[in-house]
Amino acid sequence: MVRLSRATLSRVAPAARPLAEPRVTGVVHLGIGAFHRAHQAVYTERAMAATGEDRWGICGASQRSTDVADRLRPQDCLYGVRAGDEVRVVGSVREVLVPGDDLAARLAAPQTAVVTLTITEQAYRRAPGPGATPGMVSSASSGTASGVASGAAAGAIGRLVAGLRARAAADAGPLTVLSCDNLPDNGATLAGLVAELCEPRLLGWVGENVSFPATMVDRIVPATTPADLDDVAARLGVSDLGAVVTEPFAQWVIEDRFAGDRPAWDRAGALLVKDVRPYERMKLRLLNGSHSAIAYLSGAEHVSEAVGDPAFAEYLRRLMDDDLSPTLDGLDGFDLAGYKESLLARFANPGLRHRVAQIAMDGSQKLPQRLLDPARDRLAGGHEPRWIALAVAGWMRHVTTARELHDPLADRLRGDGTAGPAATVRRLLAIEEIFGADLRENRVFTGLVTDCLERLNAGGALLP
Ligand SMILES: NC(=O)c1ccc[n+]([C@@H]2O[C@H](COP(=O)([O-])OP(=O)(O)OC[C@H]3O[C@@H](n4cnc5c(N)ncnc54)[C@H](O)[C@@H]3O)[C@@H](O)[C@H]2O)c1
Ligand SMILES: O=P(O)(O)OC[C@@H](O)[C@@H](O)[C@H](O)[C@H](O)CO
Hints:
Family: Belongs to the mannitol dehydrogenase family.
CATH architecture of the largest domain: 3-Layer(aba) Sandwich
Strand order of the largest sheet: 5-2-1-6-7-8
Bound molecules: nicotinamide-adenine-dinucleotide, D-Mannitol-1-phosphate
InterPro entries: 6-PGluconate_DH-like_C_sf (IPR008927), 6PGD_dom2 (IPR013328), Mannitol_DH (IPR000669), Mannitol_DH/Oxidoreductase (IPR050988), Mannitol_DH_C (IPR013118), Mannitol_DH_CS (IPR023027), Mannitol_DH_N (IPR013131), NAD(P)-bd_dom_sf (IPR036291)
Keywords: NAD, Oxidoreductase
CATH class of the largest domain: Alpha Beta
Distance between the termini: 54 Å
EC number: 1.1.1.17
Radius of gyration: 22 Å
Number of strands: 12
Protein name: Mannitol-1-phosphate 5-dehydrogenase
Largest sheet: 6 strands, parallel
């Protein structure tokens, strides 16, 4: 079958062709994975279509491999997004850079006004040790602020800082940097990590010229499978190695604090607000918290199968109702009950082959914001977060028994397989990077997690 490209677009049904054809690159994106292609790139294309502007083309940068570039470059960076039964070719991406390409030059270009990032939670991790560089876990000892300045060896945030340095030198104007990763306070978190890597003069320039608004992003985008590619090709009539499959739902809430110009994302359905935090907590705790519970407790291969089991769906309801939603505030007038039911319906979507193994990855970087912060809130109010404790016990069982463990802390998480539940809980709760210094001291929490792990190991029922 002929490959998707500008030259073969005429074979695609008119209704499935791109909505916009940008002529200028105004956005640089770090970490051009599946999520960016199905979320920010779609909003950006719709924004251009709504305004007629053609200056918000995207330059995507792959940080770690040439895979996405190898797929998209032969297709003139066009790719299909299938949401439900609808497939459309997206035209907002203009260029994909690979490691070694001059990312700093793109960040320093005056027409670049916005940088977006989806570099995964672990890329924001502060590696242990003095002078460590975020996203540089394995080479922490060589990461100093001046080492980052030299560029190539540093992680994604180091490369962003190198770009900011080039932009400051070129006096290329203000820039907005938007973290679109599933982290609490993602804007402030990123700003803090950037600040740690800036020398004083650059820090002054960043303070005056760069903003880091917080964002809440939502759209379930599983990793694309070969079957997805076949399906999209059949629907488009051309082969497409960059396709992504997602759900019809999409949400983007952005703190309205831009340093300069931006695409009209509000015209594409994004919500620009003063304070993202209530939305961000709601989504990280209810959606992502439930996702992690599914990943460590359900035993299913895909999310839809897990929620198809009525007993497991009931567990998720109790987790959300009893332990997670009571920790949310600032949502007056918002239909929280409707939101929770809509999450279960989204999870049940049989068209999304969302593997629980994908969600289970890097749990040490996800648990704190998804499940441990709400557990703290409940404990502080004198409540027993038993459903959260069950999910945490599920994670403990996972990290101590998984044949392959994908986690930056894997070496510290694996056990020798001989310890009993109480010793396992004690050992894992002592990892401060995950549990802080407080949870291991909390008798209620320790007791709940130990009971749950005993029950799980004994093959006990999830619901008492
Ligand atoms: N997929 C979703 O449903 C979804 C929804 C909301 C938010 N997100 C956010 O987007 C992130 C990426 O999801 P995805 O589905 O695109 O994943 P993906 O695996 O398709 O892409 C991940 C991208 O991040 C880069 N990356 C990975 N580790 C990195 C590191 N240490 N430093 C720098 N870059 C790194 C990869 O090179 C790749 O470009 C998630 O971790 C999450 O924070 C995803
Ligand atoms: O993408 P991660 O690895 O942060 O987490 C896995 C899922 O929980 C997540 O991707 C959700 O699908 C997404 O956050 C929905 O908006």
